[in-house]
Design brief:
The structure is a single chain. The protein has 228 residues and is an alpha/beta fold. The protein folds into 2 domains: 4-126, Rossmann fold (3-Layer(aba) Sandwich), CATH 3.40.50.2300; 132-225, Arc Repressor Mutant, subunit A. Helices cover 41% and strands 21% of the residues. The strands form 3 sheets. A 5-stranded parallel sheet has the order 2-1-3-4-5, sandwiched between helices. A hairpin with a 2-residue loop joins strand 8 (145-148) and strand 9 (151-153). Helix 6 crosses helix 7 and helix 6 (157-168) crosses helix 8 (193-207). Bound molecules: calcium ion. Residues 10-11, 53, 55-56 line the site of calcium ion. Calcium ion is lined by residues 10-11, 53, 55-56.
């Protein structure tokens, strides 16, 4: 399980310590020293999770968490607040701002990794290794295998990620822009038309077992996976 983790921390030593540990665990790390810097990165591509320091120069971590939660595009990104404060009322304020979890400094790398895994499982199940199954179509991220009606289905890497995202977010309409954000991660140089190309390939691959019918085109909106 490797995810893109955006670390927003203005203390260089802590930023370094967190980044090194996350990279060691196989995550891809983006670093920012302020909310403003973080926001420029988030505009380019959505990270899978944000570690957000409470006390930052300029916009505070709390204010930035509120802003992320208030915007449609960034609403779903898991946020873990980092703070040196341990008081209960601060913790409540942090969670009320929209943070998913809360870590008080100093914390152990092991605890940090466990918390990241937990928020990803809750908010972004496509980033965990849990197998998913819908109507006889089964996808196992751990072995990278997909099978339908008992037979193995070969998929390209993009189709695999796309199917994983659909299967973990069924019955919801996803626009092409959202799919680019969530499946490609960086849509700056990718045209929306590209999504249609990969949808076509995915449907072709699923045809043999009849599961192509699960992926519906929603006119002028995007695509949806049926739950059954
Ligand atoms: Ca700080």
């Amino acid at each position: 399980m490797n995810s893109i983790v955006l670390v927003v921390e203005d203390e260089p030593a802590i930023q370094e310590l967190v980044a090194v540990n996350l990279e060691h665990a196989g995550h891809q790390v983006l670093r920012a020293s302020s909310a403003e810097e973080a926001d420029a990165m988030v505009r380019d591509a959505l990270p899978d999770v944000i570690l957000l320091d409470w006390m930052l120069p300029g916009t505070s971590g709390i204010a930035y968490a509120r802003r992320l939660r208030g915007a449609e595009r960034t609403r779903g990104i898991p946020i873990i607040m980092l703070t040196a404060r341990a008081e209960e009322r601060d913790k409540i304020e942090g969670l009320e701002s929209g943070a998913d979890d809360y870590l008080t400094k100093p914390f152990s790398p092991k605890e940090l990794l466990a918390r990241i895994k937990a928020v990803l499982r809750r908010r972004a199940p496509e980033h965990t290794d849990d197998a998913v199954e819908i109507d006889g179509l089964r996808l196992d991220p751990a072995t990278h295998r997909v099978s339908g009606a008992g037979r193995e289905i070969a998929l390209g890497p993009t189709e695999f990620r796309m199917l994983h995202f659909f299967m973990t977010h069924p019955e919801r309409v996803h626009s092409r822009t959202q799919l680019l954000d969530r499946v490609w991660g960086d849509h700056v140089f990718v045209e929306e038309r590209t999504v249609d190309v990969h949808i076509r390939r995915l449907r072709q691959a699923l045809e043999a077992s009849g599961h192509d019918r699960l992926i519906e085109t929603v006119r002028s909106s995007g695509y949806r996976m049926r739950a059954a």
